């Protein structure tokens, strides 16, 4: 049984004419019908961050109602007292669902998939398929993420805070560190499948895609001589949908605009030791 | 052919898988992959796990890497007691949250103590200056503070009143510095209390059995290192020594 809502909910923007299946646990994005929807979840996101983008794309793609709480990490907003109550680790993404707060994008994605009973392919119930998603989400922490983080920080964040570019050798070193993991992504995780876990997109693809887009967006042709990964990348982008992809990646694609960002001198001083350590 | 678990109990994640399987009476064949002998680098092991890492699982034709994935797979396949990986959405999220954070915070820093104090000297014949160890201990101290303040708080275990996969992954990692003489539980009463509770929940005998190798690591100072392994690790060692 499906219901359609034509009235506009004052608290969330998803309710206009939205058709919702009655089988979903969260009955409606319209707050007057669903007690859970009355408060709705809050997602603290900075779309500059790949894990934030994976969460953002997931909720939008699955029509999960949420309040977007804009965070600007480069301006140090994660250090505010208020945000500390949401995530004491002071990282984004972070989720707030009533009195329940949650950090770490893999945990947030799994939580949302379970709570909103999203289509099976995102995080399959089949034990072996689910294990493949878990395997990627675990591996990427130390294999892909650190290099992506480092390259982005050296190329984009370092000049912003230090008023000079980072040494090119350090960038090259970080890019070289990515070579083996990318090969492993292709040979172990993707192989000859359309997506990382099988025939359909899953949380693994979303996390991998948004991470690697970070480097592509700032000008690195990381898939050079890796046609399989290029095909996979395009396939994920198409499945996400052009509009949603653009929306989620607008900030990172326009990273040059960050140069005009005004950063407080105090924050610059605070970040200096960490940045100097990266190029030591 | 039963399920095979490819393990070396010197490795923290291997211990988590070992303890979990034994505690839950999960039948498996222990396939010893001796890291010091470079057995994980061999082609044969590469067929089980192309990433050439332990732990690895082989269940019929299905192979699986990454301890988190293996633990979750085992918990589902063997229907282990709920507290290990709760079905309650929010409790489960807490386990997932810890398992994710663990990778870049506790894991890495805790393990580096073994490299600095034992493995690098063993492989290169050189000892590192004390500042290197201090650097790692300082980083670990920050992670331990976050562990206590965010994950443990005033609860006996990370999720609440019962042990879960989160506690298991944390404890095996933190036993690594203990093995090389860095007592991270000293001056940390809350952490110490938690450690005792985890050991009790696992069972003292199983806990000690799993940790026998790492707790006696110093006795391995005369071990013969496979030359191929030395070569394979050379770039990693150089980086750590910088």
TrEMBL record, chain B:
Location relative to the cell: Cytoplasm
Pfam families membership: GST_C (PF00043), GST_N_3 (PF13417)
Residue span(s) of domain GST N-terminal: 1-82
Main localization category: cytoplasm
Catalytic activity: RX + glutathione = an S-substituted glutathione + a halide anion + H(+)
GO molecular function, one term: glutathione transferase activity
UniProt keyword terms in alphabetical order: Cytoplasm, Transferase
Root EC class: transferase
Gene Ontology BP terms: glutathione metabolic process
GO-annotated cellular components: cytoplasm
EC identifiers of the protein: 2.5.1.18
Organism domain of life: Eukaryota
Listed InterPro entries: Glutathione-S-Trfase_C-like (IPR010987), Glutathione-S-Trfase_C_sf (IPR036282), Glutathione_S-Trfase (IPR040079), Glutathione_S-Trfase_N (IPR004045), GST_C (IPR004046), GST_C_Theta (IPR040077), GST_N_Theta (IPR040075), GST_Theta (IPR051369)
CDD domains: GST_C_Theta, GST_N_Theta
Record domain GST C-terminal: where: 88-229
Protein family (similarity comment): Belongs to the GST superfamily. Theta family.
Quaternary state and interactors: Homodimer.
Name the record gives this protein: glutathione transferase
Taxonomic lineage of the native organism: Eukaryota, Metazoa, Chordata, Craniata, Vertebrata
